[in-house]
Amino acid sequence: MVYFFSDLDKISDTYLINYEKYVSEIRRKYSKKYKFQIDRKLSIIVFILLRVGLFREFGIRNKIEVYKHENGKPYLDGFPNLFISFSHCKNAVACGISTSNIGVDVQEYVNFDESVAERFFCSDEIKQISMDSNGFTKLWTLKESFCKYKGTGLSAKIRDVNIFDFNFSMNTLFYKSFVLSVISNTKEKVVYIDMEEINSIISDLDAYEYT
Length: 211
Prior knowledge:
Layout: E1 2-5, H1 13-19, H2 25-31, H3 37-58, E2 66-68, E3 74-76, E4 83-88, E5 93-98, E6 102-108, H4 114-120, H5 123-128, H6 133-150, E7 169-175, E8 178-184, E9 190-192, H7 195-202
Parallel strand pairs: 1-9
Antiparallel strand pairs: 1-5, 2-3, 4-5, 6-8, 7-8
């Protein structure tokens, strides 16, 4: 399942302070490293989406911690059979939770950029998707999702990989000004979640205690 949220303008500082009670100390400290408030907000909200998703899908209400493998791919401590993936752009966040490997990416629409296409897309990929803003952004998010699925970063070598050669599930959602793509071993549903639902669930979760 992939949880998607874009009502960031509705999250006031008061809401953010309340949400921090349900975010681990490691994530809180990590979020405070950001210079801008919007980036701090994104960092907090994606963790909240993770907790909401874990509760909805698996009934997990207890406190959790997220760490990273050496390649930067996040994992949920104590739950080796669950896989997670995070993504955010300026005005939206997404969190993927699955019992199999998963990679998620969300972006706002971007115009076709030939230099980016030549650097990161192989010719067969470009042939399969029209290079208007929809197609370009779709392919970009799929490529990013693939990198997160594999646990690798974007590099020049990614151009040599045709993602359509692989036998995994690919799903792309177009929502308002956003494009969200998912690559996983099994087809994952994308769910838009609003503040009302977040607030209705969050009080049922175990809060963290800070001194």
